[in-house]
Amino acid sequence: MTHDGARPSSDGSSPEPPEEVARAVVLRQLSFGPRTRAQLREKVLAKDVPPDVADAVLDRMGEVGLIDDEQFAHDWVRSRHRSKGLSRRALSHELQRKGVDRALVDDALTQLDGDDERAAATALVERRLPSLRGLDERRAANRLVGMLARKGYPPGLSGEVVRQALRSSGPTELAD
């Protein structure tokens, strides 16, 4: 890095200004898919761009709509709940790890209500239940509750959904 904060260019010619380095990093990262401001800031700072320059570039990218943590959070909740069946709690943890502000996380999670979570948990259990044929009911229940716990579902809901699924499956589905 030169004394003015510019990085030497890759071909050895005149140094790249830190704004250009930051812009290039952000655009490259966004070409892979949506990212949060915090994720992009971390990548930019890893390239030795001064924090004030990184923040200015990120602010500008937000102004033109390339960075939108609110939209990212809403899309993330919708996608991960549908594809992975994750609970609100698990989605909240994922978004916070990605640096999304707590208020934005809470707002995005309002898309899901208790009925959505119950439906997703039920679908997960119903998909998994056939693979548990031959297990006694207690062992099957433990595996199903464990699966739901790993996806962030609360114990009360998990137990209810599993009990209902096991009752519905009938005694011929699982070993006694």
TrEMBL record:
<feature type="domain" description="RecX third three-helical">
    <location>
        <begin position="116"/>
        <end position="157"/>
    </location>
</feature>
<comment type="function">
    <text>Modulates RecA activity.</text>
</comment>
<dbReference type="InterPro" id="IPR003783">
    <property type="entry name" value="Regulatory_RecX"/>
</dbReference>
<comment type="similarity">
    <text>Belongs to the RecX family.</text>
</comment>
<feature type="region of interest" description="Disordered">
    <location>
        <begin position="1"/>
        <end position="20"/>
    </location>
</feature>
<feature type="domain" description="RecX first three-helical">
    <location>
        <begin position="22"/>
        <end position="61"/>
    </location>
</feature>
<dbReference type="InterPro" id="IPR053925">
    <property type="entry name" value="RecX_HTH_3rd"/>
</dbReference>
<dbReference type="InterPro" id="IPR053924">
    <property type="entry name" value="RecX_HTH_2nd"/>
</dbReference>
<dbReference type="Pfam" id="PF02631">
    <property type="entry name" value="RecX_HTH2"/>
</dbReference>
<dbReference type="Pfam" id="PF21982">
    <property type="entry name" value="RecX_HTH1"/>
</dbReference>
<dbReference type="InterPro" id="IPR053926">
    <property type="entry name" value="RecX_HTH_1st"/>
</dbReference>
<dbReference type="InterPro" id="IPR036388">
    <property type="entry name" value="WH-like_DNA-bd_sf"/>
</dbReference>
<protein>
    <recommendedName>
        <fullName>Regulatory protein RecX</fullName>
    </recommendedName>
</protein>
<feature type="domain" description="RecX second three-helical">
    <location>
        <begin position="68"/>
        <end position="109"/>
    </location>
</feature>
<dbReference type="Pfam" id="PF21981">
    <property type="entry name" value="RecX_HTH3"/>
</dbReference>
<keyword id="KW-0963">Cytoplasm</keyword>
